[in-house]
Amino acid sequence: MEGSRDADVIIVGAGPAGLSAGVYCARKMLRTLVISQNVGGQAAWSWEVENYLGYQLISGAELVERFRAHLENFPVKLLEGVKVNSLRLKGKLFTVSHAEGESRSPAVIVASGKVPKPLGVPGESEFRGKGVAYCATCDAPLFRGKRVAVIGGGNSALDAALQLGQLAREVCLLTLEDRLGGDEIRRRAVLDHARIKVYYRAVVLAIRGEKFVRGIDFQVDGDRRSLEVEGVFVEIGSVPSTDFLPPEVELQPEGGGGGGFQQPHHAPRALRRRRRHQRPGEADNHRRRGGCQGRPLRLFLPP
Ligand SMILES: Cc1cc2nc3c(=O)[nH]c(=O)nc-3n(C[C@H](O)[C@H](O)[C@H](O)COP(=O)(O)OP(=O)(O)OC[C@H]3O[C@@H](n4cnc5c(N)ncnc54)[C@H](O)[C@@H]3O)c2cc1C
C-alpha cells in the first residue's frame, strides 16, 4: 500500500494558506501535491489587499500572481481547477477523491478556507448567476451603469460597494445593523460616496425577478419596502469549505459574534491518537489555533 502513494503530502486548497503550506512542505523535501479549485482563494476575489506585510496596498490579482510565481520556484505539483469531493482513510493512506480521479498520501493538509455564506431568502438560488452574485471583483463589470444592491455591513460588503460604486449607477447597501461595521477607513469612503446609499436595519425578505433579477424586498423596522435593482451582491460573510471531509473529522459549530467566526476544529481519530504522544504543550497548539482560516488543518496517521 505504501508503494501506491502519489505524494508524501496532499494539500487541499491553493489560497494563501495552502500555497504557504506547499512552499514549506517542498522545503522539507516532501513530495507535495496541491489540489485546488483555483489559485489564490479569497485573495483572488479581493479587489485590493491592504497591509499584507510587505505591501501597503496590492491588487488581489497581482498578489495571487506573486503567490503563483513564488510556488513555481519549488517542485510542487499543482492540480488546478480540480474540486476535491471526498477524503477517506484507506489502509495506511488517505485517499483524496477529486474531479480527476484519486490521489493517495500518508498526510493531508486541509487548507480549503471559506466560501460565501448564502442569504437564505426566496429567489436567491433561483437567480444565482442571473443577477445574484457573491464576488464583486469577479462580477462588478457586468453591472456597469446599473442599479445594484449589496447585502451586508462588514468589510466584504463595504469593499463590494466601493468596487461597484466605480461602475454602477447606484449602489444600495443594506445592513441589518444600525451602523456599518468594518474598518473606519472603508466606512468613511462608503458614507462619503455619492452613488452609495446605505439602508440600516434592513432585513431582506426576497429577491425577485423574471428571467433575471429585477428587485429586492426588505423590511425596515417592520415597514415593508422594495427596490428595483438588477444585481444583488450577497456579502454577509463566509462559511468553512469542509463538505468533503469525512464524519470522523470533528467539526465545531461556526462561532458568531462581532462578525467573527470560528473555523471548524478538526480532530480525526488518527490525529487524536497522535496527540496523546505529543510533547506537553504541543498537543494543544492546534486546538488553540482552532484550525483557523489561513492556518491549515493537518491530518496525519499515527506512527
Ligand atoms: C473581499 C475580500 C477582501 C479581503 N481583503 C483582505 C485584506 O485586505 N487583507 C487581508 O489580509 N485579508 C483580506 N481578506 C482575507 C483573505 O483573503 C483570507 O484571509 C485568505 O484568503 C484566507 O486564506 P486561506 O488559504 O485560508 O483560504 P481561502 O483563501 O478561502 O482559499 C481556499 C482555497 O481552497 C480551495 N478549495 C476549497 N474547497 C475545495 C475543494 N473541495 N476542492 C478543491 N479546492 C477547494 C479554494 O478554491 C481556494 O483556492 C479578504 C477577503 C475577501 C473575501
Could you explain the architecture of this structure?
The chain has 303 residues and is α/β, with parallel strands linked by helices. The chain contains eight helices and 20 strands. The strands form six sheets. It has a five-stranded mixed β-sheet. The chain is elongated, with a radius of gyration of 21 Å. The chain starts with 8 loop residues before the first strand and ends with a strand. Flavin-adenine dinucleotide (FAD) binds at residues 12-18, 35-38, 41-43, 45-46, 49-50, 52, 83-84, 111-114, 156, 159, 241, 244, 293-294. Flavin-adenine dinucleotide (FAD) is lined by residues 12-18, 35-38, 41-43, 45-46, 49-50, 52, 83-84, 111-114, 156, 159, 241, 244, 293-294.
What percent strand? Answer: 25-35%
Helix content: 10-25%
Provide the residue-averaged pLDDT.
Answer: 85
**Spatial order of strands in the largest sheet:** 5-2-1-9-20
Helix count from the secondary structure assignment: 8
The run of helices and strands is EHEHEEHEEEEEEEHEHEHEEEEEEHHE
* DSSP E strands, number: 20
Could you provide a short overview of the structure?
By secondary structure, the chain is of the alpha/beta class. It is built from eight helices and 20 strands. It has helices at residues 16-27, 42-45, 60-71, 136-139, 155-165, 184-191, 269-276, 282-289; strands at residues 9-14, 32-39, 48-52, 55-59, 76-80, 84-90, 93-98, 101-105, 107-110, 114-116, 132-133, 147-151, 170-174, 196-199, 202-209, 213-220, 223-228, 231-234, 238-240, 297-300.
